[in-house]
Structures are given as structure tokens and as C-alpha cells.
């Protein structure tokens, strides 16, 4: 009953065909990635206005490559494929992504795509939090034009992204940070396979003296309408030698940058308290990977 107005199932083989289908149906055309999120929307009757599904599996957007400069991941790469990236096993700077990929159930990993996961703009997912801490950049293409945006620019509110009708995410790029870097991700979940109550991802780079040269702290899981960075916590760590006291202090500071929500999984007060705890733990985990 949910796709009551569906008129066309487009399977484009070129970006031009995507644009053509999108132009015909405008806001009522929906890109189909792995379909795992869309399936949930359909089950809740939220796709009643959709007239066309645009299945992008034939556009050649799956695959990934690592170079000395970082990692490029095609938007249609599934989580299960991404887990096979050899660098995930060895590169400490990618630790947050490796950690985040352990959480989704295998059935989801086999279908969920990197592009769909971020385009959904769901603040409760895990992989977007890891990508935000890893400073992900996106290639977005539509109507013959390509643009590059930072991941934060994609998020336009709860389940809203900034893409124009017919625009696609085609690639996610993670640049390898300079110096000695490591990252980590932690999720607090009520039950296995549930969405996050709160999650945190951090990436830190230090120089030879152990002074923090760069830091990214991202939080998700209902601490705002989108996954967010904590500028207050990052500011406290940048340029400092990292100690247990300083890490505790920074973890407390995330409270200044988040607006935890209340739902059936947790109260806002619990989310706030746990955001601080898991930020501290993620920072310590990243530090232990550095050492
Ligand atoms: C049972 C279950 C458990 C889950 N557990 C976890 C978990 O533990 N951790 C976690 O992080 N996530 C979890 N998820 C969420 C999962 O990560 C998302 O459902 C998935 O990543 C969405 O990707 P998809 O390819 O299936 O997207 P789709 O459902 O195909 O699409 C999602 C949205 O993105 C749009 N879209 C898709 N691809 C593109 C593109 N390339 N460019 C532009 N727009 C696009 C679609 O139009 C749609 O609006 C879970 C989901 C389920 C159902």
C-alpha cells in the first residue's frame, strides 16, 4: 500500500538517464541504493507520494581504492564490501570506520550502501558519525555537473539532506591525515542491532612530543537533528599534550555542542551523560592505538 503512486522504476545506465528520470518526476522521484532504509519508510507508509524509483546499481558506483593519500569509496559500495578494505585492518587512522562497521547486522551489511547511509541523514546511524570524524568529502553529481562537499554540508536536518532532485552522491573520500594519527568509534545501544542511544567517533593526530596537532570529535545517536562535531571539546585538545585529566575535561565539554533528544530509547539527561562517557572512552581508545 505504501508506493501507491509509483509509475516508473528507472534503472539508468548513465548519469544523463538519472537526470532524465529525475527531471520527469522532480521531488517525487527517489534514488534507490541498497533499499534498507527506504524499506522502513515504505513499511511506515511514508512513500505515498513517490512516483518513480531510480535504481542506481548500473552506474558503476561500487568499489574502493586506497592510495598513499587516503581512501576513495564508491557510493554503491556495501558495508560488507567496505569491511574487506585491507587498510581497515592495519591503518590506525581508519580505526573509527572499522569500529563502526562492526555494529550493523550482517543482513544489513550485505545491502546497505555507503551513499544511502549518509544520504538518509539519519542522526541515529553509526557509519556517518565515523565518516564525520574522518573528515569525509563527497562527490555529488547531477544534471551534468559535479561538485565536492564536506559531509557536514550534506546534512540539512532530521532525515533531510541538501541534495537537489536528481543529484547523487557518487563517491566518499577520506584523506589520510598528516603525522601520527588514530581514530576510534564507540556506540551505546540498548539492545544488539538497535539504533544508537548515542555514539561517538574521534580522530587525533599528534607530533613526536605527543602534542595534539589535529582533532575531530563527532557525535550521533540522537544528540541533535544531525550528526554533529564538538568544536568545544576539540578546542580544548588542540595544541595540548594529551593527559587523562585533559581528556576528561574535553569529554565533559561535548555537552556544550549537543542537544540530546528524549525517546523510547533514553532520556535526554541519560544521552548527555553517556555522550561524555563514550567520548572519553573513544579518545582513550584512539590514544591507545597511537601508542
Ligand atoms: C535492521 C537494521 C539495522 C541497522 N543497524 C545499523 C547499525 O547498527 N548501524 C548503522 O550505522 N546503521 C544501521 N542501520 C541503518 C543502515 O545503515 C541504513 O539503512 C543503510 O545504510 C541505508 O543505505 P541503503 O543503501 O540501504 O539506502 P537506501 O534505503 O537505498 O536509501 C536511503 C536514502 O538515501 C537515498 N540515497 C541512496 N543512495 C543515494 C546516493 N548514492 N545518492 C543520493 N541519495 C541516495 C535514498 O533516496 C534514500 O532517501 C540499520 C538498518 C536496519 C534496517
Task: Give a written overview of the molecule.
This protein is an alpha+beta fold. The chain has three domains: 8-55, Uridine Diphospho-n-acetylenolpyruvylglucosamine Reductase, domain 2 (2-Layer Sandwich); 62-175, Uridine Diphospho-n-acetylenolpyruvylglucosamine Reductase, domain 3 (2-Layer Sandwich); 180-290, CO dehydrogenase flavoprotein, C-terminal domain (Enolase-like, domain 1). The protein has helices at 15-25, 36-43, 79-82, 86-90, 95-100, 106-109, 114-119, 127-133, 151-154, 231-237, 244-253, 268-290, and strands spanning 8-10, 29-32, 52-55, 64-67, 70-74, 137-142, 145-150, 168-175, 180-189, 196-206, 212-220, 228-229. Strands 4-5-8-6-7 form a five-stranded antiparallel β-sheet. A four-stranded antiparallel β-sheet has the order 9-10-11-12, sandwiched between helices. The chain has a three-stranded parallel β-sheet with strand order 1-3-2, covered by helices on one side. The chain starts with 7 loop residues before the first strand and ends with a helix. The model has no long low-confidence stretch (mean pLDDT 95). The structure holds flavin-adenine dinucleotide. Flavin-adenine dinucleotide is lined by residues 30-38, 40, 56, 75, 103-105, 108, 111-113, 115-117, 119-120, 125-127, 163, 168-169, 193.
Write the layout of secondary structure elements.
Layout: E1 8-10, H1 15-25, E2 29-32, H2 36-43, E3 52-55, E4 64-67, E5 70-74, H3 79-82, H4 86-90, H5 95-100, H6 106-109, H7 114-119, H8 127-133, E6 137-142, E7 145-150, H9 151-154, E8 168-175, E9 180-189, E10 196-206, E11 212-220, E12 228-229, H10 231-237, H11 244-253, H12 268-290
Parallel strand pairs: 1-3, 2-3
Antiparallel strand pairs: 4-5, 5-8, 6-7, 6-8, 9-10, 10-11, 11-12
Helix pairs in contact: 10-11, 11-12
The structure holds flavin-adenine dinucleotide (FAD).
